[in-house]
UniProtKB/TrEMBL annotation:
Transmembrane segments: none annotated. Its cofactor is pyridoxal 5'-phosphate. GO terms for biological process: L-alanine catabolic process. Residues 124-523 form the Aminotransferase class I/classII large domain. One of its GO terms (molecular function) is pyridoxal phosphate binding. It comes from the Eukaryota. It catalyses: L-alanine + 2-oxoglutarate = pyruvate + L-glutamate. It holds the Pfam family Aminotran_1_2. Catalyzes the reversible transamination between alanine and 2-oxoglutarate to form pyruvate and glutamate. This is alanine transaminase. One of its GO terms (cellular component) is cytoplasm.
């Protein structure tokens, strides 16, 4: 309303006169009121306000109204079995009696949570970067200080607390490229093709986002191994892409067979547009290490069928079996000649979380993407810029993975001793786990050639399968839930990773200390025998 003569101020005077008249007449004054509205007064006493719960409006966000793609996402590694484990831990802390005294979380590859000690040199460099005043301390070796100074010089204001370029700190990307060249025997690597990421998962999700398009039968199909790491199925669900399963050969140590790739591809062409092929090498959850011939066959298949290759190589340091060796897809692609190397589009991923480092919490990683269309490269950088930059402490940790101490440097001897100790210990535990599982009736475990998990096949009697159905559970979920409730051991059912119809598995990490791992395996053995007797 206007503020001229007879406007708002005049209106307030009229209202005051009416109020005075009402009070004189013994009536409660009534202010102006709009139909259907209620004015809230901050002066109202809380005791005078009655909350009518029945009158509260419906929530905007419900299971029916939420994004259906998010609702479809499943991530078994932190799924129902882990939630149940958390509940049991709370009960134990309250003093509620159980047949065990602790929950052993063997569901996830979290090395430090399982007692693995950090690599000293890596932590020294990150500490120096985080608190540069320590650069004057005689307690830190010069080779660590040299790396910390170089990293800080690449940061705005010489601080780890500043944003970096979306692609990551330039000098660290240079170190990643040098590492790849050393690893692959001189195969060239361009820092401009390196993208530092928030763990490998961030890079995988970003590449999938930019790859997926179309609708109906032209919707992008993504080929993934079964069993697979649930990140892939979760990302595919979230992006509303089409999951195309190809099965690893359990009878042949989880080998990848190109004939199976071709079967899956040809069947998928009837309902989608398959254009992405995901490989996990060494395998998670299966632990197989692909030989050179297999990788050559896969690359030829991708070239022939015009598929974009994703090579998840986060376990490249975790190879244990004699006769097995890690070969990067990048190296084999280069050695197959220019027809392949100049044409096959490949994204490779690595991380600080696995290997001998086990630095999961830093969320450090990188991806190298080659043969990307120049215009798509700009689109990828744009997509990554939305999240500003990966954690800078994680970038620093990744730098130490790719730029460790070298012979002649002060920290080299201790670094190699710690690295070899971790890897030798993992190799010992891989063999121990395989051997002990294969002594249990109704359990078969393939050799753990690499990575850090066992994925044994378990026999579940028909009576137990029927009881699982009655509880509306997958049989292996029922088995794993019983294992948790009776022993405190938390493992992930194979159904969360995918498996052939009629087979049952679970994934278990081999990260616990040797003595605890032995106890864990003995408990699984005792449980399994009792389970078979109960449901025979």
């Amino acid at each position: 309303c206007g503020r001229g003569p007879g406007g708002c101020r005049g209106g307030r005077t009229d209202m005051a006169l009416r109020c005075a008249a009402s009070l004189a007449a013994g009536r409660q004054p009534r202010g102006p009121r709009r139909e259907g509205t209620m004015r809230w007064s901050s002066a109202a006493k809380p005791s005078a306000v009655k909350i009518n719960e029945k009158a509260s409006r419906e929530k905007i966000l419900t299971l029916e109204s939420m994004n259906p793609q998010v609702k479809a996402v499943e991530y078994a590694v932190r799924g129902p079995i882990v939630l149940k484990a958390g509940e049991i831990e709370k009960e134990l802390r309250k003093g509620i009696k159980k047949p065990f005294t602790e929950v052993i979380k063997a569901n996830i590859g979290d090395a430090h949570a399982m007692g693995q000690r950090p690599i000293t040199f890596l932590r020294q460099v990150v500490a120096l970067c985080t608190y540069p005043n320590l650069l004057d301390s005689p307690s830190f070796p010069e080779d660590a200080k040299k790396r910390a100074r170089r990293i800080l010089q690449g940061c705005g204001g010489n601080s780890l607390g500043s944003y970096t370029a979306s692609q990551g700190i330039n000098c660290i990307r240079e170190d990643v490229a040098s590492y790849i060249e050393r690893r692959d025997g001189g195969v060239p690597a361009d820092p401009d093709n390196i993208y530092l990421t928030t763990g490998a998962s961030d890079g995988i999700s970003a590449i999938l986002k930019i790859l997926i398009s179309g609708g109906g039968k032209s919707r992008t199909g993504v080929m993934i191994p079964i069993p697979q790491y649930p990140l892939y199925s979760a990302a595919i669900s979230e992006l509303d892409a089409i999951q195309v399963n190809y099965y690893l050969d359990e009878e042949n140590c989880w080998a990848l067979n190109v004939n199976e790739l071709r079967r899956a591809l040809n069947e998928a062409k009837a309902y989608c547009n398959p254009k992405v092929l995901c490989i996990i090498n060494p395998g998670n959850p299966t632990g197989q290490v692909q030989n050179r011939k297999c990788i050559e066959d896969v690359i030829h298949f991708a070239w022939e069928e015009k598929l974009f290759l994703l090579a998840d190589e986060v376990y490249q340091d975790n190879v244990y079996s004699e006769g097995c060796q890690f070969h990067s897809f990048k190296k084999i692609l280069y050695e197959m000649g220019p027809e392949y190397y100049n044409n096959v589009e490949l994204a490779s991923f690595h991380s600080t979380s696995k290997g001998y480092m086990g630095e999961c919490g830093y969320r450090g990683g990188y991806m190298e993407v080659i043969n990307l269309h120049p215009e798509i490269k700009g689109q990828l950088v744009k997509l990554l810029s939305v999240r500003l930059c990966p954690p800078v402490s994680g970038q620093a940790a990744m730098d130490i993975v790719v730029n460790p101490p070298v012979p002649g440097e002060e920290s080299y001897t201790q670094f190699i001793k710690e690295k070899e100790s971790v890897l030798n210990n993992l190799a010992k535990k891989a063999k121990l786990t395989e051997d002990m599982f294969n002594k249990i009736p109704g359990v078969h475990c393939n050799p753990l050639q690499g990575a850090m998990y066992a994925f044994p096949r378990i026999f579940i009697p028909s009576k137990a399968i029927e009881e699982a159905k009655a509880h509306k559970m997958a049989p292996d979920m029922f088995y794993c839930m019983k294992l948790l409730e009776e022993t405190g051991i938390c493992v992930v059912p194979g159904s969360g990773f995918g498996q052939r119809e009629g087979t049952y598995h679970f994934r278990m990490t081999i990260l616990p200390p040797v003595e605890k791992l032995k106890i864990l395996l003995e408990k699984v053995k005792d449980f399994h025998i009792k389970f078979l007797e109960k449901y025979a």
